[in-house]
Amino acid sequence: MRTKQAILIALVLWTAVIVYSYGFLQTTGQAWVMGGVIAIVLGGSQALSRSLFSLMIPPGREASFFGLYEISERGTSWIGPLIFGMVAGATNSYRQAILSLVVLFLAGMLLLAFTDTDRAVLEARPA
């Protein structure tokens, strides 16, 4: 399986976890199992995304590209909590708030699906 497809699958799994937590989560035991699934998917998706990103960096530019990666990660980390808080405040429902986060995973899926990662990797290789 290719890295891009594996990341897309991880995003689908994240979406499934959110939908599960919205519609089916009832017990503490289910929450523990869901936490385990989240741990597996989170670790794998982060490792895969960093790996794919590193392949798209031209040699000698690693520091600047990973600096941009970290800044963009930190600079956007407030979006999820903001959406969650706004929806929870507007609906008075944590279930609605958690479901609203699906939008972020769908946006990530679309962005990645339409990114030509193969071309980026080829263009990053030395001539």
Task: Write up this protein.
This protein has 127 residues and is mostly helical. Helix content is 82%, strand content 0%. The protein is built from seven helices and no strands. The model has no long low-confidence stretch (mean pLDDT 93).
Question: Quaternary arrangement of the chains shown?
Answer: single chain
β-sheet strand percentage: under 5%
Helix content, binned percent: over 70%
How many beta strands in the DSSP annotation? 0
Q: Which outline best applies?
A: elongated
End-to-end separation in angstroms reads 27 Å
Question: Which value, in Å, is the CA radius of gyration?
Answer: 17 Å
Question: What's the rounded overall pLDDT mean?
Answer: 93
Order of helices and strands: HHHHHHH
Low-pLDDT stretches: none
Structural class: mainly alpha
Q: Please describe the biggest sheet, giving its number of strands, its sense, and whether it closes into a barrel.
A: none
What is the helix tally? Answer: 7
